[in-house]
Design brief:
The protein is mainly beta. 0% of the residues lie in helices and 56% in strands. It has two domains: 9-202, no CATH class; 222-300, Immunoglobulin-like (Sandwich). It contains no helices and 24 strands.
Length: 301
């Protein structure tokens, strides 16, 4: 599933607003990046809402999840089912079912400074705190959003200290694991696309939501600078010192993640060493919490 999507932000708070949201309507789909822990698998996880089901006498939402892509170690495509994801929505809240009980996933009515707990089966609790809220416009539709932090951060291939929750779409980075855990499952990452009957959102700059390999540049708000001589793979990266810079990612032309570093709350340039990697083209991305990015291309000689 990755949207990994876009935005015009209006600076108004969402606190005190309670509006029913459209959540997991039939056919609604998410596409997330799927990366094997050792960089061998590159693909997409798609989650599609498949209608209603009954849990404890209550009508709730069922979605199916599956992974497709290419395995570079096996030199062949892969495709497998991940299982069902069950959620329910009540006004501003969305919860997920872990097989035994419901757990709150997010609440868009919580204002800045407010908190809730994300918990689940075989999953340590996280405190989620709202650090910002407002409205954004996507495809002509005005949607509420909340910027949140996690304490402690989620741990996977990289630490995830924060996220953005968007009405109808939910978290941009967290993934509800069909194996009854929530969060980064080690392989499934950012949303690249979301689509329902009324809305389409993507971070790819196109419609190739289920394209399985390749590097996606996405919409960029600015470039970063690499100095003094990035062609040897050892360089310093300078980027806009905006407070919402969250993550530095570098990928090869197959889309495999070769370098990642959390840069939230960092100041000054970032040292990067790709000297051990092969010659070729790499894409450098600085990801911001509002879904925008800064980017640059690097040719290692």
């Amino acid at each position: 599933m990755k949207n990994r999507v876009f935005i015009v932000i209006l600076g108004i708070g969402a606190s005190g607003v309670s509006l029913a949201q459209n959540w997991c309507t039939p056919g609604a789909s998410w596409w997330h990046d799927h990366w094997g822990m050792f960089g061998n698998q590159v693909g997409v996880v798609q989650v599609q809402c498949a209608g209603d089901t009954i849990i404890l006498g209550e009508t709730v939402h069922r979605a199916t999840a599956s992974a497709t892509g290419y395995d570079f170690l096996a030199n062949m495509p892969y495709q497998f089912a991940l299982g069902d994801i069950v959620t329910r929505s009540t006004m501003d809240q969305v919860s997920y079912w872990d097989g035994t009980q419901w757990h709150l996933l997010f609440d868009l009515s919580v204002g800045v400074g407010g908190q809730w707990i994300v918990s689940g089966y075989n999953f340590s609790n996280r405190i989620v705190e709202v650090s910002g809220a407002g409205l954004m416009t996507i495809g002509g539709m005005q949607l509420r959003y909340s910027v949140v932090t996690f304490d402690p951060p989620f741990q996977g291939l990289t630490a995830i200290a924060g996220d953005t929750i968007i009405e109808r779409m939910g978290y941009k980075r967290l993934f509800i694991d069909p194996n009854r855990t929530v969060g980064m499952d080690g392989d499934v990452y950012d949303v690249r696309c979301y689509q329902d009957d009324d809305l389409f959102y993507t971070t790819l700059g196109g419609n190739d939501c289920d394209l399985q390999t390749g590097v996606f540049e996405g919409p960029s708000i600015e470039q970063v600078s690499l100095a003094p001589n990035p062609n040897n793979g050892v360089f310093t990266l300078n980027y806009s010192a905006r407070s919402n810079a969250g993550l530095l990612e570098i990928r090869d032309v197959a889309g495999r993640l070769v370098f990642v570093r959390t840069i939230a709350n960092m100041s000054g340039p970032v040292a990067v060493d790709l000297s051990s990697h092969k010659k070729g083209l790499y894409l450098v991305h600085v990801l911001y919490d509002d879904g925008t990015c800064a980017r640059e291309r690097l040719v290692k000689e």
